[in-house]
Fold each of these.
Amino acid sequence: MTSCNIVLAGVGGQGILLAAEILGAAAVKEGYNVRVSEIHGMAQRGGAVVSHVRIGEKVLSPSVLEGTADVILGLEPIEALRNIKFASKDTIVLVNAEPFEITGAQYPRVEEILKQTRRFTENIILIEAATLAEKAGSVETQNIVMIGALTAEKKLPMKMETLKESVRELVPAKHLDVNMRAFELGCNAIKKKIQRVQAKC
């Protein structure tokens, strides 16, 4: 593996920075060079937040160049679209299918967002992160649901157990059980999608 370039996009309150920290910590544990950059929009809850994570053997720059992302992890559909410039036709876009809607704001239909996203890549995987997070025990664990889904998609160079270990270390102990359930539910969501595709073949 030369490098793995990940763009995480969402809004304030969704735990983008924690998700990036988990990815970076897991990569360091396995001996990779890691560079993480953070781009904050409005500081208030609901403002855009983007983080770039670059993992590899010789990674120097913290920023992902346009058209070079291996993965776009979109915790919010429209924020994933806003960062689609980093995608190529080979990029995997893992996107939360359930928008973070701001009161009083007009929000485009998710179908229209996905239509625009497909102009750049057909590799789009929808995850009902909010629903799964609620099932885990807290809607605030959507970021961990998405990390679990990304892990199961096998686009990361790190082992699943290493990623779980990073979750255990970085999440407060009182919230650990619910976050580990969220991780597993994210993993299982991808496994079920794979099984459905295989069943159709």
Note: Residues 3-200 form a domain with the Pyruvate-ferredoxin Oxidoreductase; domain 3 fold (CATH 3.40.920.10).
Amino acid sequence: MAVVGRIARPHGRRGEVVVNVETDFPEARFREGSELFVDRHGRVEPLTMTAVRFHRNRPILGFAGVETIEDAAQLVGHELRIPPGRLKPLPAGAFYRHDLVGCRVETGEGAVLGTVDGVEGTADVSRLVVASSRGEVLIPLVAEICVTIDIAEKRIVIDPPEGLLDLNHKGTMKNTKS
């Protein structure tokens, strides 16, 4: 399932929660009567939204059966998901994050860097988190660097500027404390 938000914290005493948005379509995803899914205790459970309002571009949601602050606290940290069949088609050149995870990342010469482990940032400024043999590498998700993205083949070809891979390689930092 595709992640559309993460429950950040309870809001008030009546079981509402504040959500960190992970979708470009928050008004479409978060509507009264709509159903989202959460994985709790190894089981996928539906949650029906009974109240929705936005504060500072973040939704505050109420769910059926979540009536108290204690109920809401049990949801903190959980991802809110929807089935892939409910996703809107994207324009050419746009991708859902879950489609990028698992893609092999390689250079134009065919050297394999690693596999996309995640995508960080917002729709405007995103970066690929690539698990490589040297550790984690961050690659800006821009057309000038990610020159080919082939979701069907689970392959991303990059043309990184000189030094980018070393600069964004989290494992290259040395401890300089004395």
Note: The radius of gyration is 19 Å.
Amino acid sequence: MIFAILIAVIYLAMNGPRSGGTHDVAVSGITVSPTQAQRGTLVEITVNVTNKGSTSESFNVSLTLNSAPLQTLPILNLDSGAERSLAFHWNTTEAASANYLIKAEAGPVAEETNTTDNTLTHIAYVRTKPTGQARAYVSPQNSSTTVGQDFAVNISVSNATDLYGWEFKLSWNNTILHLLNVTEGSFLKSVGATFFTHNLNATDQHIIVDCTRLVDLPEVSGNGVLATVTFHVEQPGSCDLNLYDTALLNSFEQSINHTTENGHFTEET
């Protein structure tokens, strides 16, 4: 009830009889903290407003997220030339994973003719919060075939949240196995365009494989294949397929906590 009366008072102040002078209010600044939020984070939005006119003004300041109303707060008796800050709070628990255009709008007040500075915008980003730990691993964990044959292993990931880019190194015994091919898996590229590259280090006999998305939405989460590596068996024997220096990054370019698991090859006799 008290808030409703307050809004009514502001409405009358804005629309009742006016004295002389100029009437001009503006949004002079907007800050968002944090601008990159995982769902459930409380985001604080500070809006600075200025009275650029010659008379005291009372008006409302409204905030929208992608054109949907978030909150409206009143400004009472802001003197000519004065500035005031308002703090808005956005609980992102129910927010969808998206990029949000935050728009702050002051007034307009009655008889205001210059409204070009009544709004300011800011971009904020909301993504899913991880649950549990991700895993990067060689699949199948144990491979076998005869000399002269080819076989393939996948480098896969499980329980990833908002995966945007990844990198790994894979090494093996090059007297036993010869690298034939490396191809990108479907996990990232099934949702949007990616940039994929790999490089063979002949000296240390390992490959470095990288991939990144070229768009950040929709999110890529869950389980899938990052890359497929194909070998030819040159000589009898067995060796580890050592997966190391792995990196998983989310769309905020933050590291995703994860474990790694190697594979193993055994020649069939």
Note: Helices lie at 2-15, 186-189.
